[in-house]
Specification:
Length: 235
């Protein structure tokens, strides 16, 4: 088993939802967590609990992504784990989708994953060790009506991570991808915690536990893919 104590972990999209739950769980396992998102107040509140570092950044901006990694190295001198979780989505018939909304979804989900990995990989390669975890989606493996932009972005994000896995494996770096079904978060301007979603959705902490599971795999094991659904969800 890999011990997470004192491992330095960047978690993107940590201001709420899955990223926040992951940041809290990794901190409870003794990791030094660098929480990344655009909402400063939420990050400050989180960092009081994790005793880690928070960095206000837009993952879709290359300067911001480079800054996140540089600040992490400046504060902790090392980087062990990157959780590419930040993501957005909205759903509509194709002809009603604006090109600006398409760009927002792709910039966050695909380019955001690419840029954070691009900033981190040279350091992970230099230490010949590291673990990148992507939060993709079950829609990285299926299609559905009104999901052209989000679905395509999640297929593309998955392809970025699967290609990267092959590139970095010879350097001792692991890439794991988690594919959740419905999760009760603030995704697409929803509000978690209703009686209905408690029956139909996973909790953010379920995904955080999946992240912990892949990270704690023994050094010689890489969990390439992990999919999880609420028992009630057919897919
Ligand atoms: O959503 P939400 P989730 N730069 O809205 C951040 C995937 N997923 O936890 O910047 C930096 O509660 C945003 O922070 P802020 C989904 O595709 C979900 O559900 O302050 N950060 C917030 O912390 C996504 O990849 C479901 O607004 C940015 C976080 O992202 C991941 O799970 C199902 C950002 C979003 O928190 C987490 O989403 C599934 C940017 N440009 C996959 N843009 C589901 N919920 O059902 C956004 O299969 N963030």
């Amino acid at each position: 088993m890999t011990d997470l104590t004192n491992q330095v972990a960047i978690v993107s999209g940590a201001s709420r939802g899955i990223g926040r739950a992951t940041a809290l769980l990794l901190a409870m396992q003794g990791a030094k967590v660098v929480a990344v998102a655009r909402s400063e107040a939420e990050l400050d509140e989180l960092t009081q609990k994790t005793q880690g570092l928070s960095i206000v950044a837009d993952v879709a901006d290359e300067t911001d992504a480079q800054h996140v990694v540089a600040e992490t190295l400046r504060r902790y001198g090392r980087l062990d784990i990157v959780v590419c979780n930040a993501g957005v989505g909205s759903f509509n018939e194709l002809e009603h989708f604006s090109s600006a909304e398409w760009d927002r979804i792709f910039d966050t989900n695909v380019k955001g994953t690419f840029l954070l990995c691009k900033a981190a990989v040279p350091h992970l390669k230099a230490q010949r060790k590291g673990h990148i975890v992507g939060i993709a989606s079950d829609v990285s493996k299926r299609t559905f009506a009104n999901g052209t932009a989000y679905g395509a972005s999640k297929y593309a994000q998955d392809a970025v991570l699967a290609s990267l896995r092959k590139e970095v494996r010879p350097h001792g770096i692991k890439v794991s991808v988690i594919y959740p079904g419905f999760v009760d978060t603030y995704f697409n301007d929803t509000k978690p915690g209703s009686a209905e979603t408690e029956k139909t959705h996973l909790r953010p902490s379920d995904i955080a536990q999946a992240v912990r599971y892949v990270l704690e795999a023994p050094p010689h094991v890489v969990v390439d893919e992990l999919m999880l659904h609420p028992l009630t969800q057919e897919w």
